[in-house]
Amino acid sequence: MSKKRIHSSLPITAAQQALFADVPNISLVGLMGSGKSTVGRILANTLKRPYFDSDEEIVSRTGASVPTIFEIEGEAGFREREAKMIRELSEKQQVVISTGGGAVLREDNRAALKAGGLVVYLSTTPERLLVRTRYDRNRPLLQNPDPLGTLKKMHEFRHPIYSQMADIIVTTGSGQVSQVAMHIIEAISKKIAKDQGLT
Predict the structure, then answer these.
(1) Residue 135: what pLDDT?
(2) What pLDDT digit, counting tens, does each position of 78-88 carry?
(3) How confident is the model over 134-169, as pLDDT tens digits?
(4) Main location per UniProt (predicted)?
(5) Is 123 annotated as belonging to a binding site?
(6) pTM assigned to the model
(7) What is the mean pLDDT of residues 51-62?
(8) Residue 134 marked as a ligand binder
(9) What is the domain extent for residue 157?
(10) Is 41 assigned to a binding site?
């Protein structure tokens, strides 16, 4: 696992911590810039679980950036590497996984993430995504004259896919990422309690 910056954890109750004992993997999906990596690290620290970012794992193992892989192998080549990584990470136990925005385009990736545990969709608007990604040169699909148009097309096509596969949908706006992470923990806690007949 590649080295990660230290991120804070959130205060949760002993009862919430106990509820998560039987929860398998928690996988975050959503468009680029939705906050998957930052929120994922906070979740992992809070729940005391290992954290993996599929893009970062690919970069760590290949020694090449995502844009470089796109340039050399094309998007198809990157998606093949991504599928292998998603399959490997989904087979781990009780980890938090952040996926690349396009990982859900392949049915086998969706199936692997669903089989591995709970899937959380971080949903936000294309306009908000542009604010978060406009200066990021590690987003090869946005290196064009109309990045907002690209994000709108991605959102239109992928939003139904994210929504259909997700166990939980959380809308992210201008709030703190810690609030988003806590919202996810509360939503999962309610789902577990409901599934176990505790509510």
Answers:
(1) 59
(2) 999 999 999 99
(3) 656 666 666 767 888 989 999 999 999 999 999 999
(4) cytoplasm
(5) no
(6) 0.88
(7) 97
(8) no
(9) 21-195
(10) no
Q: What is the CATH number of the domain that holds 106?
A: 3.40.50.300
Tens digits of residue pLDDT in 102-145: 999 999 999 999 999 999 999 999 998 888 776 566 666 667 67
DSSP label at residue 31: S
Residue whose token pair is 């910056």:
5
Q: How far is residue 143's CA from residue 131's CA, in Å, rounded to a whole number?
A: 14
Report whether 175 belongs to an annotated binding site. Answer: no
φ/ψ of residue 102, rounded to 5: -95, 5
Distance CA 80, CA 18 (A): 37
Is the residue at 90 inside a domain?
Answer: yes
Is 133 annotated in a binding site? The answer is no
Longest dimension (CA), the chain: 53
Q: Is residue 29 included in any domain, yes or no?
A: yes
Is the predicted pLDDT of residue 7 greater than 60, yes or no?
no
Q: Tell me if 61 is assigned to a ligand binding site.
A: no
- Is residue 16 within 8 A of residue 184, CB to CB? The reply is no
Within 48-176, residue ranges assigned H as helices are 54-62, 66-90, 107-116, 126-133, 147-165
Q: Could you give the percent of the chain with pLDDT greater than 90? A: 62
**Residue 87 is labelled as binding a ligand:** no
Q: Is 124 annotated as a binding residue?
A: no
H helix or E strand, kind and range, residue 117: strand 117-123
Question: Does 6 fall in a domain?
Answer: no
161 within a domain of the structure (yes/no): yes
| Count: domains in the chain | 1
**Has 38 been labeled as part of a binding site?**
yes
